[in-house]
Amino acid sequence: MGLFSFLTKEIAMDLGTANTIIIHNDRVVVDEPSIVAIERSTGKVIAVGKRAQMMHGKTHENIKTIRPLRDGVIADFQAAEVMMREMIRMIPENHSVFPQSLRMVISIPSGITEVEERAVKDSAEQAGAKEIRLIHEPMAAAIGIGIDVLEPTGNMIVDIGGGTCEIAVIALGGIVTNESIRIAGDDFNDDIEEYMKKQHNINIGERTAERVKIEVGAALTDLENPPADYAVHGRDMLTGIPKEVKVNYAEIAQCLDKSISKIEAAVLHALEMTPPELSADIYRTGIYLAGGGSLLRGLDKRISQKTKLPVYVAEDPLRAVARGSGIALKNFDKFTFLIK
Q1: pTM for the full predicted model
Q2: Backbone phi, then psi, for 92, in 5-degree steps?
């Protein structure tokens, strides 16, 4: 904090496929779905975040809803820029006489290419950021969980977001082995949509699939305290009339099995690639789960059964990456692993 610290506004952003979280002054000030609603004829932005999410799948031809990020990276450049700018505007202002310059830390997937990295930076610059640092999501998640990443001990983080699942072994402030697969929350939703079509002859939308996942989603077919059955509403594929179908957690666990198996395989692959000294550390410390996907019932147990290692879910896993980015923001020049 220098003499002119009031001239810079410092924010940390977890730019996610499903949700974007902004931290300012160690507080979560914005937590919104990553979605924009745009008027087709004029290209004007109608809504961003929760309001746009409510319109998703319910629009007429003059409104389109866009999710600017796909698989953890920017798919629609202009929409991403608009979304970032609007979300930065949502931060409650402390009005300063002088124009403030923005300093940002943004989290990115670890399996990202240089071009995709560039896109994130350009969008942030267009949205008004002067100084930008990027941080890999598993790294941010580790910091957010409260692990001392600079120590010479190995820790394994599995961050299951909306678009990507990031698996990393971290030691000495760097990522030693890293596995990034594009199977995550969105794929779980697709699996549920597909299953409802095949099994129950009912068409459901993305938002309904998301609700099903939250209400009765599971990774194991036998849970200790199972959730109640959930009534799903959609369109009957044979008659075209709206109808209701009751689903239980066991059938959802079955339909998600394939995607979860792929995540397990990636975890095992990352463990195979780990240097033996770090493997010894991981045997002691276990595996940490972060990201919204880690809230799936029984997922920690299932990965634990597969790897024979203790598995811990971070507290408030949805915000672990954002919290870590916020801590990295305080150590803007000290943390050497921040990407310029």
Answers
A1: 0.91
A2: -60, 130
